[in-house]
Structure formats: structure tokens, C-alpha cells
Amino acid sequence: MKRVLRRLGQLAAPTGTEDLMVVEYPRQRRLELSRTHSVIGAGVIVAVIAIIFLLQPAPPPPPAPVAAAETSTPEVVVSVVGEVHAPGLYTFAPGARVADALQAAGPVDPAHIRGLNQAEKLVDSSQIVVGGPSEPVPAADGRVRLNSATVAELEQLDGIGAKTAAAIVSYRDSHGGFGSLEELQKVKGIGPAKYQAIAQDLVL
């Protein structure tokens, strides 16, 4: 057995004349991009950025400006004449009283205001006479002034009784006057037919 192993060792020993085996390892290829590939890649990047931008939620729209007409405070304009230090037109906020107008105009003599109801709400376009009859000045053409007429004057209109006239005055006082003649139809007892019958005899 030893002889066999020795012989095999002799046969396997190098003699110095064998050809060396040349081993070629594969070279790693560098990734090269052509001009076309570069353009395509840039386009893909731009498209991705655009998609991300479009998918972002839009910012909430700015609040719409509030119309000036909605924010403006309605005014009540009255005329104060007679025995006062400063007669003229005065502007007040809705809900102002006759006492406010008297304080602004300054009565000459406190006795002149005894016949006035100082707690009464001011009605737009009405007139307060200090030291004289406080009845409203009638329209030049004889029509009844809706925003200043008394119950007695309203009763003179065709088809208007004491109850309806009182309802008109009550509505006028609680709403700061009528903004238009058509608003009269909101008063209980004034339907379209009755309004058409008296509209030509009215003025604000």
C-alpha cells in the first residue's frame, strides 16, 4: 500500500515542463447611458414631480369680501324743527327715541316738549316739531306719508279701518319704518288687492 501511494506521489509531482493554465475572470461592465436614455430619465423625473405637485391639496380659497351693503348699518334720519337751538336733520341708529333727537337739537324751553312722547321710536324721514303741533307734515300732493302718518290719517285711506291703521303704525315702529311702499303688504290685513287700491294715495 505504501508503495502505491509513493508511486502516485511521484506521478503527481511537477516536472517543471507543464503549461500554466491561464484563467480569465469576467470584467465588470460599466453601466453606460445613451443620450436617449438620459432624456427619457429626465422626462420621467419631471413627470413624477408634476404628479406630486398636482396631488397636493389645493389651498382653501380666500374668504369673499363682504359686500358693503351687508356691513353698513341702517340709519334713521329725522328733522327737528321749532323751538330748538339747533334745528335741522339728525341721523341716529335704529332704535333711537324722540328723546335722543330732542337732546341733539336742544329745546329752548323744556315746557315745549311736554306734548311729545319722548319714548317713541324715531321713524326714518319723520319730522319732530318742538313748541307746536307735532303732527307730520303732509305730502305736497295730498298723499299720506306712510312713515309718519298717524292712525287717524291712515284711516282716511280707502278700506283702512282703525285696527289695520294701528297695525301699520305698530309694524312701522317695530321695524324702524318702511323701506318701500311694497313692504306695506307685510302688515296683517294688507293683501295685494288692498295695497293696489291705496298705493296711489301713499308716499314714504
From TrEMBL:
Name the UniProt record assigns to this protein: ComEA family DNA-binding protein
Domain Helix-hairpin-helix DNA-binding motif class per the UniProt entry, residue ranges: 152-171, 182-201
One Pfam family of this chain: HHH_3
Keyword Transmembrane included in the entry's annotation: yes
GO molecular function: DNA binding
Any one annotated GO CC term: type II protein secretion system complex
UniProt superkingdom: Bacteria
Keyword DNA-binding: yes
UniProt keyword list: DNA-binding, Membrane, Transmembrane, Transmembrane helix
